[in-house]
Design brief:
This protein is of the alpha/beta class. It is built from twelve helices and eight strands. The structure holds NADP nicotinamide-adenine-dinucleotide phosphate (NAP).
């Protein structure tokens, strides 16, 4: 399986690094990017070959990964449309808010495509990617994409493309919500007497440990919360403030705002 990456930025770096760690041979990977210093960095870090010519990189590929910013997607897709017309290749787009109907318009009708929404922890192999398979994709294609994206962490399939906006609002934008919470915890810890660095370590490791327990224990988050909350104790005192100050409603409003913005951005990028 020869893989062509269009765009040699953060997400490509994360995926290439994960693929090589999981045993993909470096000769089967090519990267296209207009900036030679980006290609030189990838060659230096991973030994991956690259080109500033998108068509050249796609020519002998079996799988094409579109990893450019949403606003660059129309141009990048159009640049390889001619090449894709020559034989069947699977295309995976990791761009936030770029709909398959628009990609198909730019790439050509009948291109088998999968939309992927990874998130930032992909950079350390701890991401989760929401996937949606377009018409014309086979079970083999879905297996191929799952293998590709599991280089960056977990994967989950969506049934409808419209659910991508919700997934974007939860896991795509989600790391920033947790960073904000860690920032707030760190500042609060400092305010009540902890050294800055100690407070940060306590907050970050607690977020990471709680996240792992929520993902791996098989228990409901509410059960986990109840298990660490004894009546009249310190946790109960804090949770009472968080609940009465409306944390849940704030989270609902924040997620709805992110999903709305995802829809707006998809509409804008589709107007290219
Ligand atoms: N990074 C994340 O955490 C994350 C999470 C979820 C989804 N994504 C999605 O992943 C995609 C890539 O994000 P990123 O963070 O990797 O962006 P990035 O670091 O900016 O990388 C994109 C690369 O593509 C290059 N490029 C621009 N136009 C191109 C073209 N026509 N052909 C080939 N290459 C082109 C850019 O060059 P210039 O620098 O010269 O523009 C840049 O090197 C985005 O659509 C984003 O929505 C990223």
């Amino acid at each position: 399986m020869r893989i062509a990456f269009i765009g040699g930025g953060h997400m490509t770096t994360a995926l290439v690094s994960g693929l090589l760690r999981h045993g993909t041979v470096v000769d089967s990977v090519r990267v296209a990017d207009p900036v030679t210093s980006h290609l030189e960095r990838l060659a230096f870090e991973f030994g991956v070959q690259g080109s500033t010519d998108n068509r050249k990189v796609v020519a002998d590929a079996d799988l094409v990964v579109l990893a450019v910013k949403p606003q660059d997607m129309a141009e990048a897709a159009r640049s390889i449309a001619g090449e894709l017309a020559s034989r069947r290749r699977l295309v995976v787009s990791v761009a936030a808010g770029v709909r398959l109907q628009d990609l198909e318009r730019w790439l050509g009708k009948g291109t088998p495509m999968v939309r992927a929404m990874p998130n930032r922890p992909a950079l350390i192999g701890a991401g989760i990617t929401a996937l949606y398979a377009g018409v014309g994709t086979t079970a083999d294609d879905r297996g191929t994409v799952e293998k590709l994206m599991s280089a960056a962490g977990e994967t989950v399939w969506l049934e409808h493309e419209s659910q991508m906006d919700a997934a974007t609002a939860i896991s795509g934008s989600g790391p920033a919500y947790f960073f904000l919470l860690i920032e707030a915890l760190e500042a609060a810890g400092t305010a009540i007497g902890l050294p800055h660095e100690t407070s940060r370590r306590l907050a970050a490791a607690t977020a990471s440990g709680a996240g792992r327990m929520a993902a791996e224990s098989g228990l409901e988050p509410a059960t986990l919360r109840e298990q660490v909350t004894s009546r009249g104790g310190t946790t109960a005192a804090a949770l009472e403030v968080l609940e009465s100050d409306g944390l849940r409603a704030t989270v609902h409003r924040a997620v709805a705002a992110a999903a709305r913005r995802s829809i707006e951005l998809a509409t804008q990028s589709g107007n290219e």
